[in-house]
Amino acid sequence: MKGSFGTLPLILGSLLVTAGAVLISLPLGLATAVFIREIAPNWLQEILKPLIEVLAGIPSVILGFVVW
Predict the structure, then answer these.
(1) Do the Cβ atoms of 40 and 48 come closer than 8 Å?
(2) Backbone angles phi, psi at 48, to 5 degrees
């Protein structure tokens, strides 16, 4: 049986998934923060800021389960 066994493939796989998540979430999060703080009108800021704070309080596993 050929294949890679041990902890190295597991660690490398975890690092790859983490890097992919950072590549997606970092620009999206920064763009959202800049939009809310600098561009959005006050009435929209008052809606979006509490909404994002509530979403941040929900564990990602629950969000994934509900959305999927």
Answers:
(1) yes
(2) -70, -40
